[in-house]
């Protein structure tokens, strides 16, 4: 068999390229410390790596969600602890005011102090995490509460359901009495109101067919057909008080966040279930126990010197306090759930990372040996090829 010079050159070149390719591939592996650098290195292994990497990224999203939810719930927990301290102080003040050992002037000063506790609780109920309100349900961009108007009833001549709406604002509690009996929306009725607890009065008339009375800077609309009774000298009849109230303007649904593939946790809380207040959509108080309404009513009772009603409010505020503590416990339970889930996700991510590493990472010790072997082969091919290519017929003459 005759072997031409062209064949020798071609074979030598192929061997050099093949050896250089091995050296280049092993050098790339050594630089990246990865066995798989492109799909062609190991198609099956690359598929496994892509699948595991995608899964790890989804776990990363859940871990981030856990962190955000945990921070929000932790803030809510701390906020309710401060609120509980405020309620405890308010209860002590109400207990003092119910003993009838203080003058009406002193009671009015206590009303100012209780009002400061109400303001403090309102600030706590509007706590935000960044720009997100944590007690406004899933309406994170809105404050949970706004100040509006509310009604304190001094007897059972009316109910909250008799009032359609209240608009405007008041600087102080307004005492309102009807001086004629009849049906609102049908009869012409005289009434009067006072901003100094009855020391001075302003009289007015509700026209026949009208349902809205004007009390200076505020207006009260009754439901048509509401029956009112003239107040007598002993104070019996239709009498009530218009004052400030905390209106819940948040959502009735919590913001739910996924913390794992099959688990979601409420990140926010519906403030009305914890603090109560007035439903802004209907202008009616939420069901008892209602923390904000209990304190607001008690402020009025202190202002008018009604010791018995202040004492009766103690059971209501204690029930409201228990409701707040229950809400705090619920938030704590959610915190624990998120913490445990986050820890579990951390373990799973570690296992996933190890699996990816085992699949795509190179064996460093073995790689060094193979790279040395490849370099040796390449050098041997170069040396042999050089010697062969230098030979001619003159070498045999």
Automatic annotation (TrEMBL):
<dbReference type="Pfam" id="PF00669">
    <property type="entry name" value="Flagellin_N"/>
</dbReference>
<dbReference type="Pfam" id="PF00700">
    <property type="entry name" value="Flagellin_C"/>
</dbReference>
<comment type="similarity">
    <text>Belongs to the bacterial flagellin family.</text>
</comment>
<feature type="domain" description="Flagellin C-terminal">
    <location>
        <begin position="315"/>
        <end position="397"/>
    </location>
</feature>
<dbReference type="InterPro" id="IPR046358">
    <property type="entry name" value="Flagellin_C"/>
</dbReference>
<dbReference type="InterPro" id="IPR001029">
    <property type="entry name" value="Flagellin_N"/>
</dbReference>
<keyword id="KW-0975">Bacterial flagellum</keyword>
<feature type="domain" description="Flagellin N-terminal">
    <location>
        <begin position="3"/>
        <end position="137"/>
    </location>
</feature>
<protein>
    <recommendedName>
        <fullName>Flagellar hook-associated protein 3</fullName>
    </recommendedName>
</protein>
<dbReference type="InterPro" id="IPR013384">
    <property type="entry name" value="Flagell_FlgL"/>
</dbReference>
<dbReference type="InterPro" id="IPR001492">
    <property type="entry name" value="Flagellin"/>
</dbReference>
